[in-house]
Amino acid sequence: MITASNFFFESSTELKLLKTTAPNSTGAFFKQSTHITLGHMEKIDVLIIGAGVSGSVAALKAAKEGLRTVIVEKKKKPGDPQTRVDITRDSGITEIVQELKLEIGDHSRVSRWFSPKDSFILTSKIGDYFVKRGQEEDSFEVSTLRKAENAGAEVITGVRIEGIKKDGHMVNEVILNSGEEISPGYVIAASGQEPDVLRKMGIKLEEKNPVHFIAYGEISIGLDIPKKVSHIFFDSKTIPHGYFYMGKTSEGLGVSAVVLSSDEIMNVKERYRHFIEHNNTVSGQISKYRVLNSFYSSRYAAEIGERVHGNVLLVGDSGRFMDPLVGYGVNPSIYTGYWAADAIKRQDLAAYKKSIRKTLDEIRNGRKGRNVFLALKNEDFDMLMEGMKELSKEIDIDEFMDNPGRYSLHIAKAVLKKPGLVSMLKYLPSFI
To answer: 155 by DSSP, 3-state: which?
Structure first.
């Protein structure tokens, strides 16, 4: 995470929204390398490398299953240095959230989609979670690690992987830069997109069709939009190959960001400002907001081969589990972290491969949608909004998106009412 400014203000409202990281029950932060209690060549059930979203979920699931679990994180304080709110779909993770009692934030099934000249309000069976990220006590990563620690996991921060020894394809010894040696039964690689850890384990990802996502955004108070309703904007002229989104939590913490999927553009922060200046709706909605901090991220989505290498399971960004259409990362990180730990508990790594098929199918579908998205111009976005409003009068949009081919008669009726929609039919085969 490449970061920008991080400011804290003194008003009670702002301090409530951006809480400082609280100590754990022992009166200290998570154990750092100088406080490690592991013995020499300690044998454990599972070692998790990386304490982000997927790593923290994996640690909590593994610990609750009774596995001796150690999770290591290179940063002294886990979580992204800058507070932000990620909006991610709930598909496939609601049961996980409920089982592990994850503090994931607000949930909503209502979103509003904007083209340059029109908009469409969608109430969907697939909802959004508003996930607070960062190093505060109520951020997703820190709160989940607290639960994992309380369940028996050893959480160690400020430590790096110095070396790895293997017996054939199996990792049987991990050496920390503190000198400690760990003998894990299994390893969950949750170190994000850093190649160093995988390289030390002799794992080389053969990436195909990579998509580079870059994002810049601001966390604020005073954003003039309804709470728990995500706003998504498309404009092929001001944000080509990307989109702008806004959201506000029930506590009033706002997020506004631009997400781009191309390197051949102006600076992402400049693109953020450029879009706001040219969109009257957004300009009005942020006119009275106060920025608490800003954030920047750069990540890749890609097709790779295996996510299981010997006794090593790749989860989250390490396994390139990322939606190639809109850049969702939290949802697949939660999903894969949970199912990796579940497979280890059952000592059946084939179960992990089976569990992630759904996520991989969604990623493949996202790639199809991306090819269409890249071809859309502003007039197409306008017509798409108009078409969705027309179709929603007669059919369920969720069911239509699941299988548009079943609704050819309704599409024909919509085209008769709005002849301009015929221009959108050329994209339909990509979704059937």
So the answer is: strand
